[in-house]
């Protein structure tokens, strides 16, 4: 574990160098501890795969003081309770109509479309990071049998709710945007809604499962075509 400067009022804590559920759990422990121990000077915490960005109030605490307090607080991690995060179920309409890359991905993997769907929906994924766009949750890890590289030419327009795979990660696009991931279905759940509380259905450290639904159910749940 090391602490480095990330800005005039920010430090970043590195917990490891790889994607690992245990490291991710440690990052989440640190979030909970620091929210309490640094409450008087904390502006924001931004967790990622194996790091945690700490943004603090420079008028309330200088660099040397915040580093000292961080080291003291992080000593609590060994005894902090390790939670697995909430389990969130996201509905997904898998089909060649809703997932234009599903058939090609299945062919490349030497599997049937139904087998790809069964494998993808049969896994439990950890939310490792949220970025790229508000509500874009990076989920891992995808079964290596259906892992697929990013498209050589990204699409200019990916629909909101697109369920996608890139390498051993999967995600749901929270809004219409460009994107180069392989699209295998659509999810009607809004991954980011600024008018809702909370604004996102998942947070870093949560666990996610996808539940296959029909086209009709997708539309009933508010999905858009």
What does this structure look like?
The protein has 225 residues and is of the alpha+beta class. The chain folds into 2 domains: 2-79, Gyrase A, domain 2 (2-Layer Sandwich), CATH 3.30.1360.40; 87-220, Cyclophilin-like (Cyclophilin), CATH 2.40.100.10. It contains 5 helices and 13 strands. It has helices at 21-37, 63-74, 102-109, 113-121, 215-220, and strands at 2-7, 10-14, 42-47, 51-56, 87-94, 125-130, 137-140, 155-158, 162-166, 169-172, 177-179, 182-186, 207-212. It has a 7-stranded mixed beta barrel. It has a 4-stranded antiparallel beta sheet with strand order 1-2-4-3, covered by helices on one side. A two-stranded antiparallel ribbon has the order 8-11. Strand 1 (2-7) and strand 2 form a beta hairpin. The longest helix is centred in the N-terminal third of the chain and has 17 residues, at 21-37. The model has no long low-confidence stretch (mean pLDDT 92).
Spell out the blueprint of helices and strands:
Elements: E1 2-7, E2 10-14, H1 21-37, E3 42-47, E4 51-56, H2 63-74, E5 87-94, H3 102-109, H4 113-121, E6 125-130, E7 137-140, E8 155-158, E9 162-166, E10 169-172, E11 177-179, E12 182-186, E13 207-212, H5 215-220
Parallel strand pairs: 5-13
Antiparallel strand pairs: 1-2, 2-4, 3-4, 5-12, 6-7, 6-13, 7-10, 8-11, 9-10, 9-12
């Amino acid at each position: 574990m090391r602490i480095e400067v990330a800005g005039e009022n920010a430090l970043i804590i590195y917990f490891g160098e790889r994607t690992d559920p245990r490291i991710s759990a440690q990052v989440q422990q640190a979030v909970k501890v620091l929210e309490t121990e640094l409450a008087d000077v904390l502006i924001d915490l931004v967790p990622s795969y194996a790091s945690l960005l700490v943004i603090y109030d420079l008028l309330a605490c200088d660099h040397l003081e915040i580093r000292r307090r961080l080291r003291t607080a992080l000593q609590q991690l060994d005894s902090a309770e390790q939670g697995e995060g909430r389990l969130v179920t996201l509905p997904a309409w898998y089909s060649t109509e809703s997932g234009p890359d599903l058939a090609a991905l299945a062919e490349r993997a030497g599997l049937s479309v139904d087998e790809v769907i069964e494998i993808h929906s049969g896994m439990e994924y950890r939310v490792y990071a949220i970025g790229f766009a508000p509500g874009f949750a990076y989920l891992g890890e995808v079964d290596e049998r259906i892992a697929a590289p990013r498209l050589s030419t990204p699409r200019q327009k990916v629909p909101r709710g697109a369920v996608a795979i890139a390498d051993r990660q999967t995600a749901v696009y929270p809004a219409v945007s460009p994107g180069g991931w392989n699209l295998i279905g659509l999810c009607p759940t809004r991954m980011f809604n600024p008018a809702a509380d909370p604004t996102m259905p998942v947070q870093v450290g949560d666990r996610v499962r996808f539940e296959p639904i029909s086209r009709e159910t997708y539309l009933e749940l508010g999905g858009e075509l």
